[in-house]
Amino acid sequence: MTSRRAEDGHQGRDRQSSDSQPGGPARRGECGSGTLLALGLGLLLILACAAVALMGQALAASARAASAADLAALAAADAERGLRSGATCDLARTVAELNGAALVSCTIEGPGSTVRVVVEIDTGAPWGPAPGRARAGPPAEDVGG
């Protein structure tokens, strides 16, 4: 048994196609664009945070290298002046290693005088090790005084 409406070709309410509605087919191409925008912004935020973290790591390694160089230079200067036992540059190497650095160079400028050291801390980062430089010894004499 069929109803009279079905026989007349009517099948319930008339529905408008989405093509006749404003923004119908054109909006279909925009579906999901908000998701892609959110994903892109999220990725950008993650990359920015990673860049800030890498800069912080580089600054921390640089500060550690500077501290290790200062301590190594002071220990070497004390040894050069006879205030500590041991060879000047060997003591600088030991102090640098105790502070997580490797001694690159140790220069003595005259007996009982200034010691210059250069150390590096391996960061494991692609930009290489963090260098530290320091000088220790008696103060420079006043010129013209």
From TrEMBL:
Q: Identify the domain of life.
A: Bacteria
Keywords recorded for this protein, A-Z: Membrane, Transmembrane, Transmembrane helix
Instruction: Name the residue ranges with Basic and acidic residues bias.
Output: 1-17
Membrane keyword on record? yes
**InterPro entries given in the database record:** Rv3654c-like, Tad_N
Q: Where is this region: Disordered?
A: 1-29
Q: Which residue numbers delimit the Putative Flp pilus-assembly TadG-like N-terminal domain?
A: 32-79
Locate the transmembrane regions by residue number: 36-55
- Protein's recorded name: Rv3654c family TadE-like protein
Q: Which taxonomic lineage is given here?
A: Bacteria, Bacillati, Actinomycetota, Actinomycetes, Micrococcales
